[in-house]
Structures are given as C-alpha cells and as structure tokens.
C-alpha cells in the first residue's frame, strides 16, 4: 500500500509538505502543490488512518473526490466548499484523482479508510456508478454531472446541463458567421462530460444545417493546458482553414490559444475561440476569453446543503440543474462566410 512517505519520495518533497497539501493548507508553493497532487493522482493515494485521522473519523468528516488535477472549475468549487465547511463542526477530506480514474472505486476505499459521514463527487462517470456504487452506503452528491436516472437512494446531484451549455457555445460561433468550426474535447467514449458536451455540439451543427465531421473537425485532448496545446496543433494540421474553435474547458481553450500563437495565428483575428467553465483565468486572460460560465458558488452551496440534509435530516435524494450563462469576451470575431 502506498504511504505518505512514498508520495514524498516520488514527488521530491518532505513528508510535512505533502501533509500540508493533503490537508489543503495554504502555506505551500503552487509548484509544490501541483507536483504533489500529480503524484497523489498517479497512485490514487488515500492517506491511511493516523492519530489525527482517527480523531476526524470520530468527528464528522465529509469526503470530496475531485476528478482532474488541472480542473480550475473544481478548484473554485472546492474552495467554496471549504469556506462553508469551516463554519460547521464537520471536517473535510479531499482526494484528487486522475480525470480517467474510477472515482467510485476510490470512494469505497475512502469510506473504508476514513469513515466519512458523506461524500461529494466532483465529476463522475455513470458507468462506474452503475457498476459499483451499491458498495457506497453513505449519503452522496454528484456535482456537475446529473444522477437523476441512476435511481440510488443515497445519491443526489447538482449539475449544469452540459448538452444545452455546449450547444449554446457552438451557437455563438454560428451566430458570429463561422461555418468552419473545430472542437477540442475529451475522449467521449470514456468521459461522460465530454460525451454530453459533444451531443450539444451535434445539436448546434444540426440546427444550423451543418454536419459535424468528427474525423475532420474534432480533436481529443485531456483537460490540461499542454494536452490541449498539442491537440490544437493536430487540429490545425488536418483542418488548416478552421476559423473558430470550441474548447470543452477554459484550460483547453487557453492551451489552444497558445498553440495558435505558436503557429502564427491571431486570436480572434484569424481564429475565434470559446471555452467552457467561466473560470477567473478566462476573465483575466488576454484576450478575455468568451466562455460558458458555470455557477461554481451555487454548485458548491447547493451540494453541501443537500448533503447535510441527507446526513442530518435523512431527506430523499434531490437532483437540481443550475443555470449557466454565456460570457462574451474578446476571443470571438464576427465574420461573413456567406
């Protein structure tokens, strides 16, 4: 079994630094936090019980499983959850997973190791839930993905309508006059979120009388800057006359813009770009990124309120959809392709 000493040795940092990252302390450099979280995700590490954890187990621990170490939306949601938890008698246990990891398998391990009273899943794959979730016996809330069709008595959800939101994003590109539209997204055969957003793209193309040719205009990437940058270069290679790109996250969009600039393209003069999530980075990037804004505060607040209701009042599962909004930045140019 992987221990905190193994994580320290693999990351090159001290045990005390690793411990501070695992406990979400602020007195850690961004580089150290990033490296340690990568190692934690690589090994699917959940800390063993020690004296402090045993004390937490006897109090009121809430577990949070975060899929994707580069997901800036989830970082904002976790920060908001931490602020809420600090006002209560509960404690927070946060586990970071790779975006392709089996979050339900890790939840079962977390329940065995830390005995939380409830769990929050930030991101999830329905396939894993259908196959394994019966092994989780504490109240849970799936955040950003819908769980209303899973019909588990201990699973609620607070989500954005990914299909409608992605359709809205691509609609903005069509409205701006673009017809040669490329898409950067995850592997929709493996990623539920990517699949939902892909369905929204298909709907938008269809509504505007266009055909979404996956082989020609879709390029797969992980939800990280580097992967998106490389994917954008591949997309340009097979679709050199693209005039607009929808990236399925703000992180992907910014990675794509880096690639475009490396290749000599200007944004938005040569290629327009729209992202998804509405992170603070999108607001302060140059150019200011057009994006679909998810309401991270509402997602966090309602997920905690619903989870507490299930834990303390034994309420029935609740499934809510949180509205999104289009934020018109500076990264879309209006053209006339008629």
Automatic annotation (TrEMBL):
SUPFAM superfamilies: lambda repressor-like DNA-binding domains, Periplasmic binding protein-like I
Keywords (A to Z) from UniProt: DNA-binding, Transcription, Transcription regulation
Any Pfam family: Peripla_BP_3
Residue ranges of every copy of the HTH lacI-type domain listed in the record: 2-56
MF term (GO), any: DNA-binding transcription factor activity
Designated name of the protein: Catabolite control protein A
Organism, scientific name: Roseburia hominis (strain DSM 16839 / JCM 17582 / NCIMB 14029 / A2-183)
